[in-house]
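Cross-posted from the bioinformatics board.
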Amino acid sequence: MSGALEARYRAALRWYPRSWRAENADAIVGTMLDQAEAQGRSTPLPGELRNLASSGASRRLERFAPRAVRDRLALIALLMGTALSLLSTVLAEWAPFVTRETILFDDGSFFIPAAAGFGPFLSAGVLIYFAWILAFCAVLLKRQGVAAIVVGLTIPFSVVLYLFRPEPWAANQGSPVTSLILDGLALLVILGNARRPLAPARTAIALLFAIAVVVTGTEFAGTIQYYSRIFVYFEPRVIVAVLALLAMVAGVRQSHAWTAALVLSALPWAVISLMYVVPLVVGGAIGASLCVLVIAFGIWRASRVASPNVPSSRSS
Amino acid sequence: MTELREPTFLVLAALADGRKHGYAIIAEAVTISGGRVQLKAGTLYAALERLESEGLIAKAGDDVVDGRLRRYYDLTDSGAALLADEAARQQQNAAAATQRLRARSIRVAAAQ
């Protein structure tokens, strides 16, 4: 009886990585057998098996994207998203700063903000930016749960905003690029805990740095509206260069988690740079190759964090 | 100070009076929580692993009983300090809430 139960538990433990099972399988099976005996059971509870499946799967995820790396990625994504949102709100969406001259489209046409206004702002996209700023404040106040919910809600909301975009973006001029970038950053924020890597004061200072980086890479004007193709006037290579530089510094300092997070966070900006700079087909091929290389490097650095051979102090 | 989630608090509290193995921690957590919280094995071992990596608990030997491995864990000094801080914080909150409830019942009685 106990043998059959033990076999069921050991089968369920296949959700866990082999190395974890070698270390812990006997102990956890012993615990579950003790519990079953105390409850007079000879079969596993469905909840037990579900719990082993979810715990084992997240343990496997932990090997490739350790919590320390995901938390740092979440923080970097939050900083980038908030910096973009702050600057876009003030300089690109707020009516007093938006003039007829700054609202040029790719083909040289323009429109008057009042024709598509959202209160004192140019478009309802500003609500997405407000959500990011709110999420950043929530992280400063140590409310990661609130931040994750607020940023998470921007993803479906951005789809609604794009589908129901007003004139003049409704016809040919609307572009989902800004919302796609922010949606990608939002996913990274959700998958980690941006509150953990730095204390609130340092997080606030890091935001100032992120704003400086974004400003450096941008000809900020009304052209970076929520619905426009922002990279016409935006230089993501500056962001790639800064993130790569920071990754090198982290690498030299043997901070594996920061190195992995910085390399992985530079990836989307690097791909966007290539697609933007060189023709689509060549850019796509180079971008895909770069993706493979950078992901491989990121996973290798991340696995160093997960490895028990690396002292824990090195992961900070 | 970071607020502890309830399962983490219960694991630390279960180990406060001495080393325990997996099932003993689960049983102790049930007792401490008045039967509200029944930790599942997968959750327990994830918490134990995390607490150990944070230096709040430590492995305290293995034993084999009836052919089953029992792995013992014990609270470290920093784990005990964190648990004491959290217990004091919860006690302070509970006292403040009780005091306000007392004031409320006096006010309700006076209004009747």
